Amino acid sequence: MPQNKQFLLDNRPQGEAVASNFKLVTTETPALQEGEVLVRHHFLSLDPYMRGRMNDAKNYAAPQPLGQVMQGGTAGEVVESRSPKYQVGDKVIGMGGWQQYSVVNAEQRGVLNKVDTTRVPLSYYLGAVGMPGVTAWYGLTKIIEPKAGETLVVSAATGAVGSAFGALAKARGCRAVGIAGGPEKCKYAVDELGFDACLDYKQHKDAGSLSAALKEACPDGVDGYFENVGGMVMDAVMLRMNAFGRIAVCGMIAGYNGKPVPMSYPQLLLTNRIKLQGFIVSEHMEVWPEALKELSDLVASGKLRPRETIAQGIESAPEAFLGLLKGRNFGKQVVKLI
Amino acid sequence: MPQNKQFLLDNRPQGEAVASNFKLVTTETPALQEGEVLVRHHFLSLDPYMRGRMNDAKNYAAPQPLGQVMQGGTAGEVVESRSPKYQVGDKVIGMGGWQQYSVVNAEQRGVLNKVDTTRVPLSYYLGAVGMPGVTAWYGLTKIIEPKAGETLVVSAATGAVGSAFGALAKARGCRAVGIAGGPEKCKYAVDELGFDACLDYKQHKDAGSLSAALKEACPDGVDGYFENVGGMVMDAVMLRMNAFGRIAVCGMIAGYNGKPVPMSYPQLLLTNRIKLQGFIVSEHMEVWPEALKELSDLVASGKLRPRETIAQGIESAPEAFLGLLKGRNFGKQVVKLI
Prior knowledge:
The first copy, chain A, has helices spanning 49-54, 131-144, 160-171, 183-191, 207-217, 231-238, 267-271, 288-300, 317-325; strands at 3-9, 22-28, 36-45, 74-81, 91-94, 101-105, 112-114, 151-155, 175-180, 197-200, 222-227, 241-249, 275-278, 308-312, 332-336. Chain A is of the alpha/beta class.
């Protein structure tokens, strides 16, 4: 049985998350029972939602238990099978967690999904053609419900969710405007991801300044906003929202690592009759097949060219995750394990 | 022709609204043209939305023009008619403004509506069976969409909108919890308006304290919230919202008279997957007949017993309005003109 390096949640963050919240251990993978498969993980997904689950607080998901393997999405390959449903060599997506191997009961529906790596690279199933992509799809089509010609804005535009949002918005005939951190990300958003414009929030010291820049990038105002970050960026976009605008709230990463970050102008929700809705995509499994179909078609046709930041080796997971919370990644953050 | 005392908006508020923003003038009512009627106003409605229109800012309605009669709802009687549609003595509701008389073109649809004062007192058509009542109805049925057994909270519970909300919520089998300012208002909400509980926000110095009191009044959490005030009260309720809660934003009076009041915990919109929607009832005229029918039935059957604060004489309008913005009214604020 192979050795399996794993990261456990050792203790909960006090304010900012730190590397010592995690603990690396090595175990033996157990012998398979009938109906089980052993998956070797090629890629581990790192996502902002994991930060919320590190707290022992009311959240949209149960807290990550202490002393257990950090939960998370994985893309890998079946290396041993005692199930007729999977063969050695099958490429699979699951929730294997921060470890090199996982043993999965193949009888449980939906815990392991075979994927086709001829059209779409394996790691993309953790990003553009996975949970982040479906997240963008849900917020766009079910909450923002755009009409062709409308102007849509997304924060963290070059991230896994934001990149997919841009391609999906363009496919619906909308003007897509991104917000990202730094000139390199903004250039990439326009040159490679198809955004009509992208603003660098780091060039602006406050919401008023960013809002003025948004006015130029969105001359007809903002009809829909996909919120990944909260804080100053959200304030700035709200100042530019049109009447009957829609805001899909997917993340507020600005407030994850400490104190809540207030919304400065809530009265705009009233004066502009805005609909704002928070959501978590795992509660809407019914849309996944339709969303994944569109996303994989966009990738296969080259209309969605997602970027990845790839950390090498299981040992790099904590630092890569902490960097993600600070926006140090550029595109989807994954850890390559082999 | 009778003399007509009118209040004009003389200048716009700098921060807090003050009496000198208004100017009293006396004019002659003009001779009627064919198709016109002269209405003598018995009651003038004072409503928080008027404060927003005093600013020269982007708002949900065009700003109140300077030098013109303050706009507002009126209940009165036709005293002269050159229209076959109205007879002298007809009781009518319209948007006559802050003045004693108005001349109305009776050919325009919807500007003047005859009302039945045998079941419902005339002034109630400015409150429970008028715009504020329909406002409560719309937010409740179209945004909060309550199920029997759910817990619903409304701020400014003894105001015109809040009282109607309480009766409508009880009629749908919900637990109705009010928030109001002062023990007298809270007692009235429970004893006369049918609320299951009412909390006095003035007893609480911050959102945490009010939120703790709400926990007792709402042991199963809050499923729907009708927002009239914003600020600390909104923060406190948001801390108690259940997953998939709905917030109808009708007013944020806390921020009307000066600086915007922030929302402290916007991340709760995400973690609790809340839907929040701002609205203005005049954009949803299609619901008025159905809403007014239910509201007048509730009044006629004694299930909705709205309270009024009645200021006497047109001259009292500015002070009564400024008092309304500070919560000095108790129930619907009207000015009796005769």
